[in-house]
Specification:
Layout: H1 7-21, H2 26-31, E1 36-37, E2 43-44, H3 57-71, H4 81-93, H5 99-113, E3 123-127, H6 133-141, E4 146-151, H7 153-164, E5 174-176, H8 180-188, E6 194-198, E7 212-216, H9 224-236, E8 240-246, E9 248-250, E10 256-258, E11 268-274, E12 280-282, E13 289-291, E14 296-302
Parallel strand pairs: 3-4, 3-7, 4-6, 5-6, 7-8
Antiparallel strand pairs: 1-2, 8-14, 9-10, 11-14, 12-13
Helix pairs in contact: 1-7, 4-5, 4-6, 5-6
The protein binds S-adenosylmethionine (SAM).
Residues 23, 28, 48-50, 100, 127-130, 133, 150-152, 155, 199, 216-218, 221-222, 226 line the site of S-adenosylmethionine.
Length: 304
Amino acid sequence: MTTRKFQAIASVLRSEIPQSDIQKSSHWQHYTNERTLNRDGTVSGISGFGGRARRTWLHQKVHDHLQRRVLGKNHPVFEGPAYREASNYTKTQGRALDMDCLRHACTLDLLRAHHQKMSSPRNVTVIGDGQTNFVAAALASGLYQKIVSINLADVLLSDLELLEALPGLDKNSVQISNSAENLRSALKQPDTKVVLVPAQHAIELGACDIDLVVNIASFQEMNHDIVQSYFRFIRANFAWHYNCNRLRKVLPAGEVLDFMTWDWQGAEFLLDEICQWHQLWYTYRPPFLRPYDGPVQHRLAKFG
Ligand SMILES: C[S@@+](CC[C@H](N)C(=O)[O-])C[C@H]1O[C@@H](n2cnc3c(N)ncnc32)[C@H](O)[C@@H]1O
């Protein structure tokens, strides 16, 4: 698919790729080492940031069945608003509502339940989204005025195709930003709904009017100093932070990521427990349901 509507953004993202590559942990070097920049402006050959399988009636039935085995058929998410919204936007994007989308529906229901306690955050930033799972869910929820997505430039380029498929996003509603000043001004524009920030610029962002920062299953795959710089960003914004990651993970080059050692000092927790929807996943082969490689914790914290 070409990114006609967002062609200007696609060409900036392509130019950002070499610098963005420097941000990659050994894990991400591995998952992007077969990357191809196609003539039509798109990117292929990168993986590890979720699936986007084409939606067919039969495949969706299989997903629906296995998801009810993972969470239990009476799990409240299946009757909640975020699941209905996910059914709609995945259809528009032509993709299956897979386990990643379902995890994000659970997350959005959780954030909605705590919305008022967090003084109704207006601007949300997601660090390390995949396949627009958070951005699409947050847009559909109507909870936030602006959504900022910080990610590797090649992954943002891939996400652009999925953003193109969402309703209500025109040329002016998606922006790309490469500095704090630029981000602050994009967030002030009434038309802006989504701002994409290539990861190498995140370090310089500082305070830029962000109320909530979300990280799901991706700090666990970054180098420790990069995670530290993201915690500085959260602190600079006195933001709420939803974090859902493996308690411990070792990357291919031996980097050890340890949830409890991140810079939580002084934060107040509204939620701090094992994430119940992030313990099992499914495959199409027996035994179908499998545990993740280790427990996943989630925290909703206020900094500052
Ligand atoms: C396993 S995927 C998680 C995707 C999604 N959050 C989910 O829960 O399904 C990890 C994500 O982190 C992103 N990532 C890796 N290094 C990053 C960095 N330095 N800054 C921001 N995002 C990064 C990857 O591109 C990818 O989108």
